[in-house]
Every structure is written in structure tokens, then in C-alpha cells.
Design goal:
Layout (H helix, E strand, L loop, with lengths): L2 H10 L12 H22 L2 H5 L2 E9 L4 E4 L1 H7 L11 E10 L4 E10 L1 E12 L2 E11 L4 H4 L6
Parallel strand pairs: 1-6
Antiparallel strand pairs: 1-2, 3-4, 4-5, 5-6
Length: 155
């Protein structure tokens, strides 16, 4: 069979016998990134400091440059996220855009976060073993909704 009829057969059969691209390890790494980011947002939204801290490696570094916030290790993050007693008020984290580069194990997320006041920002994270090893956030306090905040450049 020549290559042209084989191609036609693959198209007609809907991609069996290896005719469709297979999922790559990059796909699973992207899925792991999205999963840990969603688990973190969900834990914060529930006020579950332990579940949130468990999204990070034991030796994680969490910062807001230039070191306005700087925490080292999962135990420090557990306390920062509310510890055993929880935070005084409710937290709300919402991801707007997430992107991941499997070549460097670095991902980014645009977010809105409310805890008393509302902030919009971006975070860069580095994953190790499907957990966050490094977190670097930059944000602006704003009472605007996300849509109003990005209204001049929405995508």
C-alpha cells in the first residue's frame, strides 16, 4: 500500500493504528501543573491550610519580590496559610490563565485573590515531583473586577 492510500485509510477510520498523535509526557506534566494549581486554589477557598501547604514541597520557597513576603518550607507555609486555627476571614482565589513550560518545569498563572481586599496578579512557579518548589508572585491591590482590571487588554 502506498503512503497516500494509507493516509486516506487513517483519516477514514478516525485515527486507529497509531494514526493520531499520542499524548506525550508534556501533556501529563501540563495536567499535573493545572491539577496542583487548582488544588491550591480550592484549598485556599475552603480555608484548609494543611491541604494548601501540601501542594508545596517540603523545602519550598514562597516569595513576593523584593522579599515583601518570604517563606521557606512547607511548615512555614502552613502557618502563613492559617495553621491549625485557620485565617480570620475567608480567602478566594481564582485563576484566569494558566500556562506551563515542561522544558523548564515553570508555570505561570494570572489570578484574582481576595482576603479582606482584592488583588490581581501573576505568579511564576517551578514544579518538582508535581508539587510547587518555588512560588514568586507580583500583584496589585484593586477593587476592580478582573474584567474591568484587564479591560484595555483582555484575552
Amino acid at each position: 500500500m502506498t503512503s497516500r492510500p494509507l493516509l486516506m485509510l487513517c483519516l477514514l477510520l478516525g485515527g486507529g493504528w497509531g494514526c493520531t498523535p499520542s499524548r506525550t509526557s508534556h501533556d501529563s506534566e501540563d495536567a499535573a501543573f493545572r491539577k496542583v494549581m487548582e488544588e491550591l486554589a480550592d484549598a485556599w477557598n475552603r480555608g484548609d491550610a494543611r491541604a494548601a501547604a501540601n501542594c508545596f514541597t517540603e523545602d519550598a520557597v514562597y516569595s513576593e519580590p523584593p522579599d515583601r513576603q518570604l517563606f521557606h518550607g512547607r511548615d512555614a507555609l502552613f502557618e502563613f496559610f492559617g495553621g491549625d486555627d485557620g485565617r480570620a476571614g475567608a480567602m478566594q482565589m481564582e485563576w484566569h490563565n494558566l500556562a506551563y513550560n515542561p522544558e523548564t518545569a515553570v508555570g505561570f498563572g494570572e489570578f484574582s485573590f481576595t482576603y479582606g481586599s482584592t488583588s490581581h496578579g501573576i505568579v511564576a512557579v517551578k514544579l518538582r515531583d508535581a508539587k510547587i518548589a518555588n512560588w514568586r508572585e507580583i500583584f496589585y491591590d484593586s477593587e476592580l473586577s478582573w474584567d474591568a482590571f484587564v479591560s484595555e487588554n483582555p484575552f
